[in-house]
Amino acid sequence: MKITFKLFASLGEKLPPAAQNHAVELEVPKATTPEKIIDQFAIAHDRAHLVLVNGVFIEPEKRNQMVLKEGDTLAIWPPVAGG
């Protein structure tokens, strides 16, 4: 099944070269969770600060339980700081 995967800020360097606008389309097996994608792209769990599926925040303890569906968009931001 296909999903859209987006990484922002410093995490963007983990996307493949074919990525455009911070996003890439991925072919993933059924029963894939956000945590499986995070692990696949070698993103440290403490760097996956804000994880959204179709714009809805997924709490850290649910990232290995929620199953992605065809057409979903998984977006991840690292922690940010500013002043």
Descriptors:
single chain, 83 residues, mainly beta, Ubiquitin-like (UB roll), five-stranded mixed sheet
Walk me through what this model shows:
The structure is a single chain. With 83 residues, the chain is mainly β. The protein has one domain (2-77): Roll (Ubiquitin-like (UB roll)). Helices cover 8% and strands 27% of the residues. It has one helix and five strands; from the N terminus they run ββαβββ. The protein has one helix at residues 34-40, and strands at residues 2-7, 23-27, 50-53, 56-57, 73-77. Strands 2-1-5-3-4 form a five-stranded mixed sheet, with no helix packed on it. Strand 3 (50-53) and strand 4 form a beta hairpin. The chain is globular, with a radius of gyration of 12 Å.
CATH superfamily: Beta-grasp domain
What is the number of domains? 1
Quick check: average pLDDT? 95
Across the major sheet, the strand order is 2-1-5-3-4
Q: Determine the CATH topology.
A: Ubiquitin-like (UB roll)
Give the overall form: globular
Radius of gyration: 12 Å
Classify the oligomer: single chain
Q: Output the helix-strand order.
A: EEHEEE
- Spans where pLDDT lies below 50 across 5 or more residues: none
Q: What is the count of β-strands?
A: 5
End-to-end Cα distance, whole Å, is: 41 Å
Structural class: mainly beta
The percent of residues in helical segments reads under 10%
Largest sheet: 5 strands, mixed
